[in-house]
Design a protein that fits this description.
The complex is a heterodimer of chains A (about 650) and B (about 290).
Chain A lengths: L1 H19 L3 H25 L6 E4 L3 H24 L3 H21 L7 E5 L1 H35 L7 H4 L3 H20 L3 H19 L5 H32 L4 H10 L1 H18 L7 H5 L5 H10 L2 H15 L3 H23 L4 H22 L2 H32 L10 H4 L1 H15 L4 H15 L3 H26 L14 H19 L1 H17 L8 H21 L6 E2 L7 E4 L4 E3 L5 E3 L8 H4 L1 H31 L1
Antiparallel strand pairs in A: 1-2, 4-5, 5-6
Helix pairs in contact in A: 1-2, 1-7, 2-5, 3-4, 3-8, 4-9, 5-7, 5-13, 5-17, 5-22, 5-23, 7-8, 8-9, 9-11, 10-11, 11-14, 11-15, 11-26, 13-17, 14-16, 14-17, 15-16, 15-21, 15-26, 16-17, 16-21, 17-19, 17-20, 17-22, 17-23, 19-21, 19-22
Chain B lengths: L4 H35 L9 H11 L3 E2 L4 H20 L4 H21 L3 H32 L19 H14 L27 H24 L8 H22 L5 H24 L2
Classes of the chains: A mainly alpha (about 650), B mainly alpha (about 290).
Chain lengths: ~650, ~290
């Protein structure tokens, strides 16, 4: 209990300190020290409650309730202020609706309604705490070096690029404060049993990402930030509606009681579950809300890493996984979640094929993966929840690693285009290996992702989710394509061009190595990860583990993972074999640059590009399909869950 | 939490596969060339010609463009061995399919690593090929699971009837993508055994000596594994049915050779489109049938 409060409050204090702390040195010290403390705190917490069942902590405080309401007002005020400044009236309107709704809720409608057990801990929140504490704070450390380069670029080239003074301003204190505030809000979400408190954390993450996306204050950044906030306030209003319904029908704000009552009398909670699921879908950037996460790319890379791996979108899937037992009894919201997740997985995997921008590929793959997790949560069998939790872990580790790699590569090769990553293996040997490691952890066989996919398939079959099986089959084939061609681009080797990774900041290396280690450990120790972290939660919620997920296969995958890592970091080095030039159907002049003498005795350069199959998988083609389809599913499901129960009561 | 019997079986199976599959695959490759030659009105090479070829490749000088393609091909071979071991020891069919995909990935990386424009194009096409056949492989495994009640291949020996009785559409779909997996015309887009390839040799353009030998051996092993997948559909509780499985697998293999010799190579667009349509129709119909009976 003390530890939980510490994890929530400590980042908050650090955020306040960072806001006033000026100077790189001071900031470096504070960020590194507090990152270590937060990570250590999370690990201690995990060790202390390892394998524990659901443990609630009695903690009820009207003061905290009021603080939550006050925070809600501040958030709304901030959004309205920005809305006025940038003339975005939709955002203002939504913020007003939300703040009025929450004030009425807190001071009138649900005044006095509370949850005796305010905080809790179970294996899922431990997993989340570790992800937030280690990966999240690791990203903060990475940001130290990255933001120095970022600001340097602004100072040196900003004026020439036509940025205004406001856009070039050193806003780093605010940036780091927001990062830590984000971590604190995430802890609130994963430890709160009181749904009103959870809602406060939920809204804080929305505002934090708004400010982080708008960081550069360019027109594009501001527009994308507003898209994010509009979509997420919509989700927030969904959450608020769910709070109203929970109080009205179940008389409690306790998440645990809410789930327990819902399991017994699904008709009471079905609308609330639908509204909560809607909130989860917006936050997890599922279609048609996926555009906010794509837009979030304009922010500095550490922001993307944070949003994609350990915070924000993970809050969305966390909520959906938590609701999973209710999906087992509430058919309509479950169907909505399953179909939206499944279609998002397939279509976003398709669209990732057509992207050349590395960050966009990562964004689409994040959305696709979240789709898979969301679908698993909706299927709501023990195997599916097992798979969903493992996917959360692997995705967090691999995706943060990949984003950090792309960010560092961008600063050193001047591009985030995959086609420009040709020869990265020569130019940034260590970074390229980390990137390959990340890609491999994301999608291939012996690694966690595929084990999780396999469990997904088992549970889809068991629950006769025919459409989902098809979506998974085609979607994961697409996954192979877009990762494999990226991996191929990285693996090209020519002579020995200049090594440009010597100027990478130590703080970036440290966090890259930490992320890489987490990814490797998670893959190699897969049987233990499953046994220690994931299975207790599944057993705690469902009472059983479901179909045996075959321990020997976990071991097999662990062995194959060790083999691949050994090859990646030990096997592919300098070779003693005789090296020859590449065949170019002409006399080679320089085989590193693929120059050859052509038939007119001039020099030609052979170039090749990867295949992007735009005619099949172009964004213009698929995006409208996905948006219309998923919007339709959501609208129909929400209407159905709103109409059917009253009909049943009559 | 502990290492189980089936895990040991898998390791034993892998070792057995490593010893036997290249031998069987080599004979099959030799026969393939003789049968193809007869279809074209030629006599063809001796049965052991593939073996002589590989022996000669191994004896050649180690020359390389990238320096790492050999390592990647070793990985590809190891993964092929594991995929075979998992399958023939009665292990998890999905796992076997995933691990063989992993082998394909390393083969693709080996091709990319040379930075030859021809190899890169070939590798790009190979990724499209993998994408084309993956859905059907997955759906085939799902249908197997629904029919046999387990992803474990060993479960076929507990069946009162062969799995094929419930999975005819999926089997037809699988035969379609088998042509892609065996790199037979009309789907030999990334690299071809025939001398009429517009990409020089595609993926294997810059591979030579031992590295190319590894590609050949991998191809032998893959052939044996995929024919194993084919035969699996026809085996049930009676041990004698293994003979039926082998016969069907050989028949399918003969059929593939016949296709190889009678169809012109198609473009990747056509391959992708048809492979996915077949997967959707055959796999989808079969799953629906299995779900509702």
């Amino acid at each position: 209990m003390q530890l939980i409060s510490f994890l929530i409050l400590f980042p908050l204090i650090i955020a306040a300190v960072l806001l006033v702390a000026k100077g790189d040195m001071l900031r470096n010290v504070i960020v590194v020290a507090s990152a270590i403390i937060i990570a250590a705190g999370s690990i201690v917490l995990a060790v202390q409650y390892l394998g524990a069942p659901w443990i609630g902590f009695e903690f009820e405080s009207p003061i905290v309730d009021y603080i939550g309401t006050a925070i809600g007002v501040v958030i709304a005020a901030a959004v309205i202020a920005f809305g006025v400044k940038y003339k975005n009236y939709l955002a203002i309107a939504l913020a007003v609706i939300q703040v009025v709704g929450s004030l009425v809720f807190e001071l009138g409608f649900a005044h006095g309604a509370s949850s005796r057990i305010g905080l809790y801990i179970d294996s899922l929140s431990i997993v989340m705490a570790l992800i937030i504490g280690i990966i999240g704070s690791g990203i903060c450390v990475y940001a130290l070096g990255y933001m120095i380069d970022f600001q340097k670029h602004l100072d040196e080239h900003g004026e020439a690029e036509g940025l205004t003074e406001l856009q070039r301003k050193d806003r780093r204190p605010e940036f780091f404060a927001l990062m830590f505030l984000f971590l604190s809000a995430m802890y609130v979400i994963v430890f709160s049993n009181n749904m009103a408190w959870m809602f406060t954390g939920w809204e804080v993450t929305t505002l934090c990402s708004f400010l982080l996306i708008a960081y550069t204050r360019t027109e594009e950044a501001v527009n994308n930030a507003f898209r994010q906030i509009i979509m997420n306030i919509l989700g927030g209003i969904g959450f608020l509606v769910a709070l109203y319904l929970a109080v009205a029908f179940t008389g409690t704000l306790s998440l645990e009681r809410f789930i327990a009552i819902g399991m017994m009398r699904p008709a009471l909670v079905v609308v609330a579950v639908g509204a909560l699921a809607f909130a989860g879908l917006t936050k997890a950037a599922q279609m048609p809300f996926h555009t906010w996460l794509l837009g979030a790319m304009v922010a500095p890379t550490p922001t993307s890493a944070l949003l994609h791996s350990s915070t924000m979108v993970k809050a969305g899937v966390f909520l959906l996984i938590k609701l999973s037992p209710l999906f087992a009894v509430c058919i309509v919201p479950a169907t909505m979640v399953v179909l939206v997740g499944g279609f998002t997985f397939m279509l976003c995997s398709f669209m990732a094929i057509s992207q050349t921008n590395a960050k966009r590929v990562l964004a689409y793959s994040t959305i696709a993966n979240l789709g898979l997790i969301v679908a698993c949560a909706g299927v709501a069998t023990p195997e599916a929840v097992w798979a969903a939790t493992l996917l959360v872990i692997f995705h967090a580790a691999a995706k943060s690693l990949l984003f950090l790699c792309v960010g560092t590569a961008e600063h050193h090769i001047g591009s985030r285009d995959i086609e420009d990553m040709d020869l990265l293996f020569d130019r940034m040997p260590r970074l390229a290996r980390f990137m390959m490691l990340g890609i491999m952890c994301m999608f291939i066989a012996p690694f966690g992702m595929l084990i999780a996919k396999w469990a997904t398939l088992v549970s889809f079959v068991d629950s006769n989710q025919i459409i989902l099986i098809l979506l998974l089959a085609f979607g994961s084939a697409a996954t192979f394509m877009f990762w494999a061609k990226w991996l191929g681009k990285l693996s090209g080797i020519a002579g020995s061009p200049e090594n440009v990774e010597l100027t990478v900041h130590p703080s970036e290396w440290v966090s890259l190595i930490i992320m890489a280690c987490i990814a490797v450990v998670a893959c190699v120790a897969l049987p233990f990860v499953s046994n220690i972290f994931v299975e207790p939660y599944v057993v705690g919620v469902f009472g059983v583990l479901g179909r045996d997920v075959a321990v020997d296969n976990l071991w097999l995958s662990s062995i194959l993972a060790i083999f691949v890592f050994a090859v990646l970091f030990g096997g592919i080095g300098a070779s003693k074999k005789k090296r020859v030039g590449v065949y170019l159907a002409g006399v080679s002049v320089d085989s590193d640059t693929r120059t050859y003498r052509n038939s007119l005795s001039g020099e030609s350069i052979a170039t090749s590009r990867n295949m992007y199959l735009n005619s099949f998988f172009g964004e213009q083609k698929l995006r409208p399909v996905g948006e219309v389809l998923c919007s339709f599913i959501i609208v129909v499901a929400l209407l159905a869950s709103g109409i059917i129960p009253p009909v049943l009561f009559l | 939490m502990f290492i189980t019997e089936s895990f040991i079986f898998t390791l034993i199976g892998t070792v057995a596969f490593v010893v036997l599959a290249p031998i069987i695959g080599c004979f099959l490759a030799g026969l393939d060339r003789i049968i193809s030659a007869r279809m074209q009105g030629r006599v063809g090479p001796p049965l052991l010609q593939p073996y002589y070829d590989v022996r000669k490749l191994i004896a050649k000088d180690d020359v390389t463009v990238s320096g790492v393609d050999g390592v990647y091909m070793t990985c590809a071979l190891v993964f092929t061995a594991f995929a075979g071991g998992i399958f023939f020891s009665g292990g998890n069919l999905l796992m076997s399919a995933f691990v063989i995909t992993m082998a394909a990935l390393f083969f693709i990386m080996a091709a990319y690593s040379s930075r030859s424009p021809y190899a890169e194009l070939g590798a790009g096409r190979e990724t499209v090929q993998v994408m084309a056949y993956e859905p059907m492989v997955l759906l085939m495994a799902v249908c197997f699971f629904m029919a046999a009640g387990s992803f474990n291949v060993g479960a076929i020996f507990n069946q009162p009837l062969p799995v094929i009785c419930l999975t005819i559409p999926a089997f037809i779909g699988f035969l379609f993508i088998l042509t892609i997996k065996l790199r037979k015309s009309p789907f030999d887009l990334s690299t071809s055994h025939h001398a009429h390839q517009e990409l020089v040799r595609g993926t294997t353009t810059e591979m030579s000596g031992k590295t190319l030998a590894k590609v050949e051996v991998m191809h032998w092993c893959e052939t044996v594994l995929f024919l194993g997948w084919t035969g699996m559909f026809f085996i049930w509780g009676t041990p004698l049915s293994i003979i039926l499985g082998v016969v069907v697998a050989l028949a399918a293999w003969f059929f593939e050779i016949w296709i190889d010799n009678n169809f012109a190579r198609v473009k990747w667009q056509a391959m992708l489109k048809w492979a996915w349509i077949v997967a959707l129709v055959c796999g989808g119909i079969n799953i629906v049938i299995l779900a509702f009976i």
